[in-house]
Amino acid sequence: MNTLARHRRLTRIWASDPGWRGWFTTVNHTDLGRMFLVTAFFFFAVGGVLAMLIRAQLATANSAFVGAETYSQLFTMHGTIMMFLFAIPAFEGLAVYLLPKLLGTRDLAFPRLTAYGYWCYAFGGTMMLVSLLFGIAPKGGWFMYPPLSGAIYSPGINTDFWLIGITFVEISAIAAAVEFSVSILRYRAPGMSLDRMPIFAWYALVTSLMILTGFPPLILGSILLELERAFGMPFFQVALGGDALLWQHLFWLFGHPEVYIIFLPAAGIVSTVLPVMARTTLLGYGWVVAAAVALAFLSFGLWVHHMFTTGIPHMGLAFFSAASTLVAVPTAVQIFAWIGTLWKGSPQLRLPMLHILGFFATFVMGGLTGVMVAVVPFDWQAHDTAFITAHLHYVLFGGFVFPVLAGIYYWLPHFSGRRRFFKLGEAAFALIFLGFHGTFLAMHWVGLLGQRRRIETYDPETGWSAINLVSTISGFVMAIGLALVLIDVVLHTMISARTARNPWKAGTLEWAMLLPAPAYNFASLPRVTDRDPLAFDPALPLRLARGEGHLGTPAQDRRETLTVDTSSGRPDYMVIFPPNTALPVLMAAVTGLFFLSLLLKTYWITPLALAGVAALACRWVWGLGARADAGPQDAGHGLALPLAGETDRAPGWWGSVFLLTANATLFGSLLFGYAFLWTVAPGWPPPAWLPAAPAELAVGAGGAVAGAAGLRLAVRGNRRGRPVPGLLLAAAGALALLGALVSFLGRIPDPAGHAYDATLTMMGSYALFHAALLALMTGFLLLRVRGGYTSPARRAEFPIVRLWADYAALVAAATLGLAHLPGLIA
Amino acid sequence: MPLALAGCNEALSVVAPAGPAAAAIATLWWVMLAGAALICLLVAGLLWGAFRSRPVADGADGARGERVWIHGLGLAFPFAVLAALLFYGLWVGERLMPRAGSDVVSVSAVAQRWIWSFGYDDAEGRVTQGVLHIPAGRPVDVAITTRDVIHSFWVPRLAGKLDAIPGHVNVLRLEADRPGVYAGLSAEYSGAGYAGHHFEVHAHDAAGWSAFLRGERP
């Protein structure tokens, strides 16, 4: 097979459907990455327009441009859109597009999940836009503090849009994080050990793990607040045993890691682009990786610095203040590693480098003001003033938008296959840089003069008018600059000339392919022996195109790639990716129906939508696997690999591990909430503890043991071709769990009576959901066994369900145990 | 003098302190600003140098570069600066805590959309709305809470802010050096009337304070 024939054959196998259908059925990461990015920048534009309206309102004193009501929707939606609908999805889009190319593989671990995540984002984002267009957008500020966001002070649907819409969108973040984690750890080119991984992959890995542990507290908070609003379960109402501070803890447990979830990918871009711009390699690769990991850990220890004014004891504040200042150390390690890299090489002032310099200037200042507000007494003054608004824009615009613009211009030839022709980008950079600092530098000062954030008007006597006017004018200059970037990019993709391969002479694998990227990425997979494979071996692209790597000759018309051992990069097994399908968009639509039924309080639709999701999920998984053993497959160069379905640790197992990590964080946050209310909320202890019911506890414990033991038995039995007895035991266990949990939930007097009852109801429902999931999965496996989809070799599905069985057992045991404890003691 | 920068009106200015707490924080701010400016200059200088200098020849392992950039500038430098700053901040914070004392005056502040009501331990049953009366030159502990949503009690020229949270009472120590009228704000977004959620603190001399406690109009 010659190079052209190989290209045609692989394109036919990997390409998305032609025409408009392709948009909805594509599961290709290159397409979906582009869709993510375009959608994210659309929302960036919407958020930017809102920002301009905010600035227009504040331009002069006593402004009557928009009223207080509209203004509150503007600033709430500006923050919400920029955080949830721009920053996170922009990272997702870039990583979806880049990761497989950087890692030397053909797609992400779960292509259909990529598509599902995209559609959840698109539908959830649309939901938020609709609320904005109809003037019923959320208006309590982007962190939605109750009681202001509760049913009493915010009746109407505005807050529900936020709680439900954002939770819907977050599905895409969790899906992406699971997928990136598995892809980075398993889906790499043969020989790419962890220490040969491109630095961006490290950053994406750390970010993904942070999303998995950072987003669940917010998802839980949103669920609890929506339950309070819809059904009166008083988690945050102090009169009924709740506490408004619980929301703040849950929100900032998410909110602070979120800042680093946004910054770290941007730092990954800087670490990738800056060395290329300086014609050298990154200084201190290991240190930079360690710094990113340290940031991730530290960022979970400093959420309370958003709550320095809530009356937490000074000793507690001291701890969080120390953690908050400490976080500057790994940041400094990265900053100086980058500057050292510039010294090591010979930096050139090309357009991406300009944006990186913009990043340095802006982010360093934002970091320094960040250290200032980490010092508790100063925060008591600066908190909730324009100083904070200025600080956070320095950090987020400086730490995210500048690096992303650097990345956009760096990878633009990759996205489009064209070379930059118009020099609009330089002018745009100047406008953005000057506009940004003009908008926000003096805003620090006006904050110290007493201008609070979120006020819609001020008196001329305050002396703030001049600064605000400068701020507004500069804001419009910045907006013009960003619009120029948009025009530049559009013109570029339409009329520029084609580029050669690897225009920047970079060393990473994404440049070892045709431009624009073909659907299959690499005609054959490289064997990696160096951190910068292209610098090490400039002829690599041609050899890959000639099919001299692995999997260069598609034996059947199937989408093949291979996985590697996590640390060593030794090839492990072969994966066959699913074909194009409309299942993800359909599933996202039904998921959307579920959220819509909650939003519109048409609760009779809710169970139907849930059943729809479950049915589609079964359909989704049913399509995998085979009815006959395939044995080892030829992967080229004498390498024979088993198929994923004939291993113990299939991609689904790895995906389940990471999804359960997020899930366990959610449950952990719920237990934290329980403990917090118990110890801090004024309305405790509750009027009565739930009495213990030994029989219920015994049935539950028996069910948990049977569920976990049944799957173990099934895994072992399957080796002899007899998995059914174990599965039946597990099914019985699941039914026992369901029985015990239904009985438990039935004994809770009134979920709306006291936060204690509400919390027990929440815990019981969570455990019930997982018991039902176990029942569903066990039943599904029984059908698979009957359908002939399993054999002693085709065994991958059993260990996956075992994970979920263990988790369901653990959750049910913990829930029943903790709920019975006070009753047993009393 | 920095105060000249504060412009014509400093009624709400953090950098025009009129009490010991606000003064300590204002000093903290100027110290941090100076330090931050120096660090900015350092980073700018290093970046400028990177474009001016020739590539630095380094061993194949890059050990020397790591020593200078990572160990020195990345680790040791921020550790030293941050440790000093942290202790300074904690020391300031510790001094601002409400401590028992014979001359401490206790008052209460109750927030409600969009008014503030103030009560006085030394004058049972006395409630003022929109104006908090305190004696000048004496430490005052304000017990802060709310009847509805979260608010925040803030008199920028006297002290930092502290939140009013349903079901909780937070105590803020403040003190005015001299008699006078000081502007106060609510500083946590509370809905449509937030921008106008103001109050005033009237600090009296000793005679004015006892007159107020006797129920005379000050």
What topology emerges from the helices and strands here?
The complex is a heterodimer of chains A (826) and B (218).
Chain A: H1 3-14, H2 21-25, H3 29-58, H4 68-103, H5 111-133, H6 158-186, H7 199-231, H8 244-277, H9 285-299, H10 314-326, H11 328-344, H12 351-374, H13 376-382, H14 386-416, H15 424-448, H16 465-495, H17 533-536, H18 540-545, E1 559-564, E2 571-577, H19 583-599, H20 605-622, E3 633-634, E4 640-641, H21 651-680, H22 694-719, H23 724-747, H24 755-786, H25 797-825
Antiparallel strand pairs in A: 1-2, 3-4
Helix pairs in contact in A: 3-4, 3-5, 3-16, 4-5, 4-6, 4-8, 5-6, 5-19, 6-7, 6-19, 6-21, 7-8, 7-9, 7-21, 8-9, 8-11, 8-14, 9-11, 12-14, 12-15, 14-15, 15-16, 19-20, 21-24, 21-25, 22-23, 22-25, 23-24, 23-25, 24-25
Chain B: H1 20-52, H2 63-95, E1 105-112, E2 115-120, E3 123-129, E4 131-135, E5 140-146, E6 151-154, E7 162-164, E8 170-174, E9 180-186, E10 198-204, H3 206-213
Parallel strand pairs in B: 1-5, 4-10
Antiparallel strand pairs in B: 1-2, 2-3, 5-8, 6-7, 6-9, 9-10
Helix pairs in contact in B: 1-2
Q: Which features would summarize this protein structure in a list?
A:
heterodimer; A: 826 residues; mainly alpha; Cytochrome C Oxidase, Chain A; Four Helix Bundle (Hemerythrin (Met), subunit A); two-stranded antiparallel sheet; 67% helix; globular; B: 218 residues; alpha+beta; Immunoglobulin-like; 2 domains; 5-stranded mixed β-sheet; 27% strand; disordered N terminus
